[in-house]
Amino acid sequence: MLCCMPGVAFVPALLVSWSSAAFIISYAIAVLEGHVEPLVPYISDTGTKPPESGVFGFMINISALLGVITMYIRYLLVEKQNESSRFVRSSCNMFSLYIGLMGCTGMGIVATFQELAVPSVHDIGALVAFGSGVVYITLQSIISYKSCPQWNTYFVCHIRMAISAISCIAFIPMIVFASQVSMTKIDWTPGEKVKSY
Q: Which residues form a coiled coil (predicted)?
């Protein structure tokens, strides 16, 4: 099977490298063009105006594709391990894959529909991407614990669960604060009147 072939570990590494480059490159272009302030802009703000919007959209769509490939490899790996030790139901592994694919679809939506061009679609894509991502990593952490000690160490499981907990904790304020903000433009100066809708 593909998941048992040597060398597939490069796919998750490529996903992390490519995604990091997407954020860094679009951030650099946006700052150099004067489209965002250099101090901690929203990720989506760095992909709103041309030329960085094209780079952001292209690179994030590739990241979404790499995410799909990575999740499918993980699915196949768990299925193969499960043949010998039956540590998790196949339906749980499949459900986890579907949730992960939903997150990747959300990433594609975020990349395709810019924050200010189609804000409602962009926000739905972000909610799907981040929400599905939190559920996916939590399910993968649970699957990892169930596969201990044959296929994972408890140390790796604890690290995965810590990342899941941090993701869950971070997701809550993201929802709360995002619901309080109505963005219609990126450039705003203190004292400027804001239109209320």
A: none
